[in-house]
Amino acid sequence: MELSTRTAHELHNMLVKKEVSSREITEAVLGRIEQVEGQVSAYITVTADAALAAADAADESFAKGDAPGLLTGIPVALKDNLCTKGVKTTCASKILKNFVPPYNATAIDKLANMHAVPIGKSNLDEFAMGSSTENSIFYPTKNPWNLSCVPGGSSGGAAAAVAADEAIVALGSDTGGSIRQPASFCGVVGMKPTSGRVSRYGLIAFASSLDQIGPLTKDVTDCAMVLQSISGKDPMDSICADVPVPDYLAALKDDVKGLKIGVPKEFFVQGIDSDVSAAVWKAVELLKSLGAECGEHSMPVMEYTLPAYYILAPSEASSNLARHDGVRYGFRSAQATDVDSMFQKTREEGFGPEVKQRIMIGTYALSAGYYDAYYRKAQQVRTLVRQSFEEAYSKFDVLITPTTPTVAFGLGERSGNPLEMKLTDVCTIPASLSGIPAISITCGYKNNLPIGLQIMGKHFDEETLLRVAYTFEQNTSFHKNRPALGRE
Ligand code: GLN
């Protein structure tokens, strides 16, 4: 079996037993990138030299007998909105096209300290705003299951890289679904941890109260390994909580007996693909047959989550993105004649249409005359959403829903229809608004495109999510399927 197709836990065991070197693994992944990247376009930058240097450092530490980290020697793709010291971090935007951060994000530092292998910076929608990776200023990423379809977004490059074996695992970011939705479209595992579980330091801000870094992996065990490696308190991120990090690998039990699983009917939205809902219900039936107690539930406030998100996220973005002004870093327009025109031209030329639209909506929603009508209302919805989840969790341990109402759509199919594009986030946004953890795993296929199942849990209870996901995985074989790409 080719090394690039292996999971991180398989490779970790092989590395520990000295059956393989990190250099061999890294060369295999770089070889796979050479083979298929021309078709997939998962990366903005491939950092082959840094990867091989890290692989050698990992091999050296194995040779010395140092206690290995879970991801020592494992090739990781990094979404290109995560700051990497000395390596371009573009956010897929013209305004940061040549930005080289002077520091690492905390999550990246944690990986670097254990000699994980940074294989490259993966493509995304500009500033993580989008659901298809078509808003990248470089090029769209393609779905490895069907190259004429989108990989989802905004972590489309990360999801496609893992699905296509161009990385073993990846780090993405999720503000309203940007890890889970592309994981669903690309048939990989994606988790948005609880807000405050993983430090956001060095994640280029989109909507700070919603942004989270999390794993995209080939299976649930790898998801636990990545989560373990990046979690924990960080003084550099004030919302990063001082909550002990449990042993996530110990949470991987093939057992859901007695667990209470709720299925909120509002997530089976109007227009949902009947094959998607059938696959999700089949998954619920399977968990029931394995001993879980499953019951239907209702969360009527869910109707308002999408509109609330599309006020709150742009509002925060309009404030966060004010720093990109051509003064301190990034692109500066050459057309300016004075300081005011410098700000104006830099932002006019530097941001793409989706980002500009959000800055304008956010500025409007926060302006004195409209704050109460929009921003405050949306915040109130957010409180109701939180309460609705609290109520649900007084009855259930986890909630199960589809990750997205449809499978991956065609490239270009929704780019002219912003409403339809945004509707792909309808099932992922509620967890973002309430800060709870959520995971997406594959539970079926339609026309050879993966269907995602979302499991949402209580704050800081990633363990139960992992346990349910792991049990599902142990009793099905979806996670073993790979796209045929390059192997036909
Ligand atoms: N698709 C959503 C948006 O465009 C979510 C993006 C994200 O999670 N970064 O806002």
End-to-end separation? 15 Å
Q: Tell me the structural class.
A: alpha/beta
- What is the string of SSEs from the N terminus onward? HHEHEHEHEHEEHEHEHHHHEHHEEH
Small molecules bound: glutamine
Mean pLDDT: 97
- The overall strand count is 11
The poorly predicted ranges are: none
Going by CATH, the homologous superfamily would be Amidase signature (AS) domain
Name the strands of the widest sheet in spatial order: 1-3-2-4-6-5-10-11-9-7-8
**Number of DSSP helices?**
15
Return the CATH topology: Amidase signature (AS) enzymes
Our Rg estimate from Cα atoms comes to 21 Å
The portion of residues assigned to helices is 25-40%
Q: What kind of sheet is the major sheet?
A: 11 strands, mixed
Q: Your description of this structure?
A:
The longest helix is centred in the C-terminal third of the chain and has 22 residues, at 372-393. The chain has 488 residues and is α/β, with parallel strands linked by helices. The protein has 15 helices and 11 strands. It has a single domain (3-261, 394-480), classed as Alpha-Beta Complex (Amidase signature (AS) enzymes), CATH 3.90.1300.10. It has an 11-stranded mixed β-sheet, with helices on both faces. Bound molecules: glutamine (GLN). The site of glutamine (GLN) has 13 residues, from loops.
Present the secondary structure layout:
Layout: H1 8-16, H2 22-40, E1 43-46, H3 48-64, E2 75-79, H4 106-113, E3 117-122, H5 156-163, E4 169-174, H6 180-186, E5 189-192, E6 212-217, H7 220-230, E7 260-264, H8 274-289, E8 293-297, H9 305-320, H10 339-350, H11 353-366, H12 372-393, E9 398-402, H13 418-423, H14 429-434, E10 438-446, E11 449-456, H15 462-474
Parallel strand pairs: 2-3, 2-4, 7-8, 7-9
Antiparallel strand pairs: 1-3, 4-6, 5-6, 5-10, 9-11, 10-11
Helix pairs in contact: 2-3, 5-6, 7-15, 9-11, 9-12
The chain binds glutamine.
